[in-house]
Amino acid sequence: MKARYLFPQDYMADPAANVFNDRLYIYPSHDRDSGESFDDDGGHFQMRDYHVLSFGDVEQDAATDHGVILDVEQVPWAAQQMWDNDVVEKDGKYFLIFSAKDYNGVFRLGVAVAEQPEGPFVPQPNPIRGSFSIDPCVFKDDDGEIYCYFGGLWGGQLQWWIPAQLPLGKEGDPTLRTASDKKTELFIRPEAPALSSRVARMSDDVLQFAEASRPVVILDKDGEPLKAGDPHRFFEASWMHKYQGKYYFSYSTGDSHYLCYAIGDSPYGPFVYQGVILEPVVGWTTHHSIVEYRGQWYLFYHDCVPSNDITWLRSLKVQRLFYNEDGTIRPVINE
Known about the structure:
By secondary structure, this protein is mainly beta.
């Protein structure tokens, strides 16, 4: 199939695709022209609500828009910028994990719960303890355990946090840097190991982290962590899927504009870098999701082609995804 725009009626981005009850649901962020000027910290992305779109045949059907499932005014702790989200099902309930700025200007992750995948979702009164940054992906493994991957640099504030040092070289929950140094990037030297996405297993009720988050380490073929100066290192937009028993961690490289992936044997990693899935699209980032639906794998992403002169407003796309015999992903051309 040729790449297809999924919802030309409106600008949406960051598609988190999930299959519930043999129907495909996409949970995007909802772009709007807020009048804010473009900046590298994403200050122009002033999203206020979430919709959910669903499909029977994702290659042919028009999207069903189920309307607003959560608005920033419903979330007691959230002040602005309802950025990326994802949804996972457990015991017949649906848990929306989302990112938003609190009233101190710090990105946190929150949870909202619904009885059906199209919502409406009822938010918890407080953010997840120990959460920070943006772009949550919630992955349910074959044994029923649920993991949350998250993090994003620059405006996503991942670099604001200092990991706590625990015995035996392990990390605990990071603490916020002081106001004087939390915006500096001097510590992200090109030759230093790249800052990583984070992962934490969720509690049984899917309302909190069950453990301190830990880094999602991406190694090169020599077993060394990717460096901060590598154009293929992590920047934002974590996604996890499983194929033939292996864990595929995919992500956006942000300012170098690639969509890359790495493979591991555990949901915690480490993951070995494999290559580029998608070359740069029109627009700043390659936020995406990967899911199997009715026997076919699909890549969901966005670009800014339809917004013409307002180039940061994004539109959802889909196209088929294929694997090679050795389990590597065939690169996709954005048509």
